[in-house]
Amino acid sequence: MKEVKKRSDCPISCTLDVFGDKWSFLIIRDLMFAKECTYGDFLKSAEGIATNILASRLVTLEENKVIQKLEHPNSKAKVLYKLTRKGIDLLPVLIEMHLWFEKYGTIPDDKKEMFEMVKKDKVGFIENMTKVLEN
After folding, report:
1. Are 83 and 130 in contact (CB under 8 A)?
2. What domains are there in the chain, each with its CATH number?
3. Cβ–Cβ under 8 Å, residues 82 and 31
4. CA distances (Å), 123 to each of 90, 91, 103, 129, in order?
5. Which of 94, 102, 100 is nearest to 129 (CA)?
6. How far apart are CA 90 and CA 50, in angstroms?
7. Which of 10, 35, 49, 13 has its CA nearest to residue 91?
8. Residue 44, Cα to own-chain centre: how many angstroms?
């Protein structure tokens, strides 16, 4: 793993050294809910990430063992990206970010059903989602 220069020993600061931008968490989000993605899949995201930023963030996430590259079953020219166990362990963080936003913002209609399930049984939802992502 590439050594990241730490600004301090604060756990939040050290975490931000790896995920200190919006794009990293959006890549992780896409992998959480799609399970695996190609480079092109990330480019299709509604947020419109630039190719140079995407390439840089994928390298950083891979160097920090949050994601891994896999061979694409249908194309030698493509690779699949998938979360590692370390990446899957970010699921509770993303869930809490969603719940925080729901408290202060408006959740899109297509996400409401999922977050009703989360609010009914957050632990169960995380356990089930973790099993799905591990396979």
Report:
1. no
2. 1-84 (1.10.10.10), 90-135 (no CATH)
3. yes
4. 14, 11, 19, 10
5. 94
6. 24
7. 35
8. 15
Indicate the pTM of the whole model.
0.85
Q: Which of 1-10, 56-65, 109-118 has the lowest mean pLDDT?
A: 1-10
Name the residue with tokens 């990241």.
4
pLDDT above 60: residue 28: yes
Give the tens place of pLDDT for each residue, 107-129.
889 888 988 999 999 999 999 99
Torsion of CA 89, 119, 107, 99, to 10 degrees: -50
Quick one: pLDDT at residue 87? 95
Tokens of 80: 């699949």
Cα gap 30→66, rounded to integer Å? 13
Residue 47 C-alpha from the chain's centroid: 14
Instruction: Report the 10 Å Cβ neighbour count for 114.
Output: 15
Across 3-12, 18-27, 84-93, which has the greatest mean pLDDT? 84-93
**CA dist 76 → 29, 40, 44, 84 (Å):** 25, 14, 21, 22
Tokens 């050290």 -> residue: 14
